[in-house]
Amino acid sequence: MASLSCFLRSGRTAVALVVRREFHRTAPVSVQVTVRDALNQAMDEELERDDRVFLLGEEVAQYDGAYKVSRGLWKKYGDKRIIDTPITEMGFAGIAVGSAMAGLRPICEFMTWNFSMQAIDQVINSAAKTYYMSAGRQNVPIVFRGPNGASAGVAAQHSQCFAAWYAHCPGLKVVSPWNAEDARGLLKAAIRDDNPVIFLENELMYGVPFEMSEESQSKDFTIPIGKAKVERQGSHITLVSHSRMVGHCLDAAAVLAKEGIECEVVNLRSIRPLDVETIETSVMKTNHLVTVEGGWPQFGVGAEICARIMEGPAFNYLDAPATRVTGVDIPMPYAKLLEDNSTPQIKDIIFSIKKTLNI
Amino acid sequence: MKTMLALISNVLCRITGKNAAAQTVSELLIDLSEYVSLTSPVTPAMATTQRQPPKPPPVSTSAPQLVSVQADPLASPGAKVVISSRSFTSQATFDIKKCELHHLEEGPPDKAEMTREQGLQYYHSMQTMRRMELKADQLYKQKIIRGFCHLYDGQEACAMGIEGAINPTDHLITAYRAHAYTYTRGVSVKQILAELTGRKGGIAKGKGGSMHMYAPNFYGGNGIVGAQVPLGAGIALACQYQGNNQVCVTLYGDGAANQGQIFEAFNMAALWKLPCIFVCENNKYGMGTSVERASASTDYYKRGDYVPGIRVDGMDVLCVREATKFAADHCRAGKGPILMELQTYRYHGHSMSDPGVSYRTREEIQEVRSKSDPISMLKERMLSNNMASPEEFKEIDVEIRKHIDEAALFATSDPEPPLGELCNHIFANDVPIDVRGVNPWTILKSSS
User: Is residue B246 packed enough to be buried (19+ CB in 10 Å), middle (13-18) or exposed (0-12)?
Assistant: First the structure.
């Protein structure tokens, strides 16, 4: 008797499952995708779409990528399109730029952006400036990508944020995605862009899953470079951030919401061009501004935002000076206690918000 | 006219052993062609890598006319033929210096063939480069050209020899001593000088200057010493990737030869067998530092280690041409990169701010000028082989002088680029963007 009811129950579940699947076809499908997988899928689709696109860098092929971002691509596309390079950044970055000048569309991976300093001359002098110097005769359709900024326990030489360095230079576009949708849309846009794009990823975000809308899963989904996104509406204060710190801002906003403080969180998405208009519109609404970044304070992203706000219409709407929340102005230490206190934590953001609001 | 006809016919009768003298012009021409067939060597089929350099303008009609020699394989069948008081050798074979080899069983040949037409074309191009550089010198001293100006006079055989051996569809990239290569790659003297003087008629609209001139399949003009070498390897990668059988000639100097990124480029080029011809133009001085003071090994053709190398006489346009042909064939056969060291010399200092005599003697410069000048050597070869007349060379010189003067006039009278150009060409194929000016109230426009 028990076995019969069991049988019936399992049969009923099976039927229910089938029935449920039928219903699923009409409802919108959103899935959980990690930032890593979003990047991987974006590259896969762009490699398939355009024969001229190829990926080169250290360990990108047979190792599946130092951080597994290019997993499976070499198996699918082979040696011609996914190229393992020797440990010679200046050389292979130059080769990538040269190949872009001659008609290809390379994705040049730096294992981390710290190593780009070996090759920075090729990025700036060969890639960024060439279209201008040639008065439009020679463009350089290249994407440089890799993890940027602090990681966990990798110490000073492996933890620097290069957003301000590259965003300083005309001729480059600089993007810094936060979530999986950002990663996918911005990488596709970057690969399709006919100019050099600096694509700043974040190692700690690679494994974080995010819900992705159906629209964002389309093969032609791109996010315009130079447009920020308001991740959370608010009326009391504007928080402007990029990359991993966007998540910290949202967490701080959630905590403060319980105290009745509504934060508007702006996800820059692009550092250069900077979407000043979105920031201005928000500040003109909330009258308060806090910028949050992981990089060093001096001459940084926050400094630029403050300067621009001062130069524009939003200045007259500020009820208090803008505040910058940044990494501590030191090389990154190793010991966990010290490292944890070297970049903004949620409590630091909350503290700065309250100070700015004079609460 | 009749006396002339009789005169020539008699001479030819004696030479060719004919009994009857020619009565008509056409008979005379037939006799002439017989004479030439007797004296010319057999002409081989043209190699497919041979590129015809830009044709010189026609010689003026006032001077004694040229005879279009029937045996010349390059002459079109319907070529106009005019009487002359002389006939010229249509083609000759010249001994060239044997190249020292590194990791190569065989090298370029030690003989080179040159037709009269080729010779005149090489002469014309090299003399144009020479006079163009000297004009730039003049304009710089008049302060009409500013900033950097690195002159190439003395090294013409390198640029001409290379261009004579590759196709227009091949690629070339060099460093900052680039004016001559800009010319051989197809840009007019007018546009080069106007770029030097910073005018809107310049090849980069005046926005690049001496070191940043670009043309199809010519990637500059690069200001950072050595940076162009990985770029060149990358262009070669694109050739291989696209399977188009093209090569990239990637030049650098003896000073750049010690740059680490060059060895990085060698490594990847060899590893991936990129069709890249690395060329070290060794003019014996990196700015003010002689090669002995800069390099532990001055055998630049060996510095590629596992990359095969050739050491070439860079003052002999034929030697450079044969070596480049050899190198291009090597690359196109899929054998990977190859390195050519061209031993050459620059008459000017490193740049216009360097007199060029503090680190070398005037005697040394004078000795090279008198014994190894590439243009003189070519001219003497042609004269001593009866391939052209001194008058012809003089005419070419006059015509070039006129051409350069006209170009200089344009370069000095053309207006500078308008201020509206200031912010253009930041991004390609993009919507117009705003660019911050010198103060917050100055918002400038930038279009692609």
Answer: buried
Question: Are the beta carbons of A95 and B220 separated by less than 8 Å?
Answer: no
Tens digits of per-residue pLDDT, A212-268? 999 999 999 999 999 999 999 999 999 999 999 999 999 999 999 999 999 999 999
Enumerate the β-bridge partners of residue B276.
B248
Contact assignment for B231 to A94 by CB distance below 8 Å: yes
Q: In percent, how much of chain A has pLDDT > 90? A: 92
Chain A interface disruption, residue of B235, B250, B436, most A CBs within 10 A: B235
Closest CA to B211 of B178, B188, B184: B178
Phi, psi values for residue B120, rounded to 5°: -65, -40
The sign of the torsion formed by the CA atoms of A32, A35, A37, A40 equals positive
Token pair belonging to A173:
């576009």
DSSP state, A145?
Answer: E
Angstrom distance (rounded) from CA A137 to CA B182: 14
Residue B86's pLDDT is what? Answer: 72
Nearest Cα to Cα of residue A198 among A282, A322, A113, A92: A113
- Structure confidence by residue, pLDDT tens digits, B332-353: 999 999 999 999 999 999 999 9
Blockwise average pLDDT, block size 10, chain A, 359 residues:
53 48 56 97 98 98 98 98 98 98 98 98 98 98 98 97 98 98 98 98 98 96 98 98 98 98 98 98 98 98 98 98 98 97 98 97
What tokens appear for B424 in the block? 């253009």
pLDDT over threshold 50, residue B51: no
Average pLDDT over chain B, rounded to whole? 88
- Confirm if A114 and A158 have CB atoms less than 8 A apart: yes
- How far is A155 from A334, CA to CA, in rounded Å? 5
User: Distance between terminal CA atoms of chain A?
Assistant: 69
pLDDT for residue B10 is more than 50? yes
| Tokens 């076809």, residue located | A25
For chain B, percent of residues with pLDDT exceeding 70: 81
As given in the structure block, the two tokens for residue B333 are 């056969």
Sheet holding A323-325, edge to edge: A229-232, A263-267, A237-241, A289-292, A323-325
Cα dist from A316 to A239, A240, A281, whole Å? 18, 18, 12
State residue A7's pLDDT score.
Answer: 53
pLDDT of residue A28: 60
- pLDDT tens column, B392-443: 999 999 999 999 999 999 999 999 999 999 999 999 999 999 999 999 999 9
The answer to whether residue B56 scores a pLDDT higher than 90 is: no
Nearest to B69 by CA among B24, B106, B120, B18: B120
**Contact at CB, B235 and A101, closer than 8 angstroms:** yes
Q: How far is A101 from chain B (nearest CA, A)?
A: 7
Best residue of A89, A115, A124, A137 to probe chain B, by most B CBs closer than 10 Å? A137
Chain B residues with CB inside 8 Å of A95's CB?
A: 230-231, 233-234, 237, 265, 268
Contact A357, A324 (CB under 8 A): no
Tell me A60's DSSP state: S
Q: pLDDT tens-digit profile of A101-128?
A: 999 999 999 999 999 999 999 999 999 9
Residues with Cβ within 8 Å of A317's Cβ and at least 6 positions away in sequence, in order, are A283, A284, A287
